[in-house]
Amino acid sequence: MSRTRVRANKPDWFLIILFVAITLFGWLNVYSTSRGEDESFNLSLTTLYGKQLLWLGISVVAGFGLLLFDGKFFPAFAYLIYAMSLVLLVAVLFVGTEVYGSKSWFVISDALRFQPSEFAKYATALALAKFMGNKEFSFSGQLGENILGIIPRQALGVLLLYAVPGVLILLENDTGSTIAFAALALAFYREGMHGGFFLAAVLAAILFFLSIVVPVVVLIGILAAIGGLSATYFFYTRQHKVGIFVIFLTSLFAAYVTTTDYIFHQVLKPHQQARVNVLLGLEKDLRGAGYNVNQSKIAIGSGGLTGKGFLEGTQTKYRFVPKQTTDFIFSAVGEEWGFLGASLLIFLYSALLIKIVLNAERQRTRFSRVYGYCVFSILFAHFALNIGMALGLAPTIGIPLPLFSYGGSSLFSFTVMLFTFIKLDAERSEILG
Amino acid sequence: MNDSEYKKYVYIGVVVGLALIFVLRLIQLQLLDPDYKHFAQSQAIRRVIQYPARGGIVDRYGIPLVTNEDFYDLMVVPALAKPLDTAEFCRLTDIDKAEFIAKFAQIDSLIKKKKLGSRQPFTFIKEMTKESVAPLEEKMYKFEGYYLQPRILRRYPLKIAPHVLGYIAEADTALTRRDSYYKPGDYVGISGIEKAYEEVLRGRKGVKHAFVDVHNNLKGSYMNGAYDTSAVPGQDLAISLDAELQAYGERLMRNKRGAIVALEPATGEILALISSPSYDPNLLVGRGIRKYYPLLARDSLKPLYNRAIMDGYPPGSTFKLLHALIAQQMGVLSPSTVYPCGGGFSIGSHVVKCHPHGGPTDLRQAIQISCNSYFCRVFTNIITNTKEAEKHYTIWRKYITAFGIGEKMSDTDIPHLKAGLVPRPEYYDRYHGKGRWKAFTIISLGIGQGELKANVLHLANMAAAIANRGWWITPHLVKKIGRKPVEALSLFRRHETGIDTAYFRPVVEGMERVILAGTGRIARIDSISLCGKTGTAQNPHGEDHSIFVCFAPKENPKIALAVFIENAGFGATWAAPIASLMVEFYLKRRISRPHLEERMLNANLLFAK
Question: I need a surface site. Which of A176, B226, B360, B502 has the fewest CB within 10 A?
């Protein structure tokens, strides 16, 4: 197909408005949570909100700067950017600074520090888009290029691109970054990975939590009953293959359930075990592992319908909620802006996410679509885990609320990530796949 | 490619589903469950109790008896405590290194057991005085995480009158449960004036609502103090004690077991109330209570026991004064009635012995020499040996109690005052059978022995009633509450004894003779017309108790008092001289008989049998 200019590049102003709304609302909350009670307003780099405003400015400049780029830049440099991010990920393991037990930060100065894993998410999204952007790409390997006759070669390529930075981030010992990165896989479903994998992952997670509450023997019994009954049904209806698959799957889950105990006690660290126990209500250590979540729930719950008002949140102002400028910033929204403000924020994020999905679908290049879904996946994971944690629905994992929490490098990389998509979307009619 | 477009609905569906879950959760937390609001309030708003300063206590002339003194507790916030120069720290705080290490071990174990938050202040050293804290104060900047917490404790500058003043201590759980005003750790008056005037002295706590942050640091006030109440300071109290007289009496009573009560007859004000052995009230302050209270409580001499108001003793011969008055009032005795002594009063084979003295006596002489036979007859005349005995006894008893004896004096402000005992007729009915007892059966009452029990305050009050020739005002301690004089409050009742004034004359003259030429000659003071009566209470357990009641001057008496010394023998030997020294000191502020004074001061009667 020839390249034809159909109409002028117009960025999606709806996405940009959502971006502005979320970041400004975020900055107000960073201001509220970080200012000292008796301090006067001080927009300098000595205050967190001052730094955050500077970073917001830098991010907006960078974001709109990206709109001036040629859209072809991104697929062209995708692998190079990816390679650079790998170098940074390796480097941080050696020269990085340990923060909260994770060796995941480059600290250049007090005001300038960044996490290469933030960059890696962006880089990997580009690389995956580039790799899967090939029109011929398929997870099931219809081209017959199977390695050892089982694994499709192209799927293996995706796995490598995904797993190498993934393992490097895992080595940083930062659960939040690892899970946020891992979420990129959500995009694979759209590109043809079988939905069963995701169902299996969800099921595995549910079984993991269940196995902590319910004795393993009982769980295996239930699995055997369900598996046995459905297999009987399939054999009876002469769907032998399905029946055998069901039996295979059931045994796999049964075997998995016997290992969860090991995973829980040996792989998870004591503080993580405690957080899981708190989530499941098995432990109510309100001074220890349960403190953060309990305080977050108190702050949110005390907000009521309309909230206590901007700068009036007592739980926020008096530092009852830990990490309230970053991981638990949603608690400040709940307390000061109430149910209305918190719901509005959830609505803004949902609108952003849905709009990204809709825009991704209207792309003419597979590259742009895959990239769009990658952006969606990462934003979704942050949104789900961060707010889920603040509401006591997900275990406590250090993960920021994107475009909202305090943190310059996080804000910057999410902005770049989003505006790259806005740029690709703007040029969708120009670049034809 | 478009065959997979339906999948966008899966993604959108997941987003919408999750948003719904979040909103439902928000509805649950923010709109349905009110608990979180309470939690937030209770942890961010602290009720800060404002403790009012407890009122001070001064004597009748304004001399401070109880003051408040600043103390300091050295506090440490474990999480903020930095390593320090242990040697210097120990030198400044006057603790040794082992103690220092032990304290930190204690803090660690408390934190481990979660009984102490690492940001919760812990009292490292309690109650350092202003002087001892001064060198430390200069160096406090070196000890990060430590600070000095000012506190107020009671001080007793004169170290006198512990039994009168009482002491304050932390409220026990029984009290905090009974009275919601008191919270654990609050101080409350436990005995004496501190107990009797607790509500006046303590004032009223105020409460401030303030925000606190997560580290329990106070932040701004809540609602600009709309719900705050300010503390009402406790009122100062002036009590009727004469501090110098009290101190002098305590010196005289040193190394003796017993008590002195001195009253101002016209007002019922207690001028001195001494119980010996005594103790320094400064011992029972703050942490001293835990340390010294058990020691004092275990002491075989019972220094905590207030002998002036709690013990009942047989009043002995001092009671003869009342018999003389009652008998005249009942018309069975005239001052000129003369009875022979005969060395004792015989009832069958039983003889109430009398000491050797010359010839038959009239009433004045009988008081002067304390003739037992005379008063056995007087008592017999009152009660009679007829079927009417019980009726007469009841009348006699009414007069006795009209002098306050056997009464708790419910309107007095002395806590724990015991009533003593003047038996009711039923008491004797039980022993001897109804109608089967008469004067002779209970003849020992005639000389103030037998079942009778009165305490020293009762005897002093009896002396005051005689000094007033027929009436008395409930003995009490308070003189001024805040700035209000007590007379204006009319808190204390005037009691009439029911004895006509005329009948007091021969009795008072008899008492004067006691001093001038009778059993109490040792108490004579040349410049003061002292009227007194000796008493010797028989004691089945050992040596007799020495008793003396008196008042002075004879006309317009200014002081009435009773002295009681356990196991000291005749009333004349110890109680009378001590009483006369007290009277002289009160009226003249100087002692004209240094030898007598010296002998009394130096006497050690603690271990007399």
Answer: B226
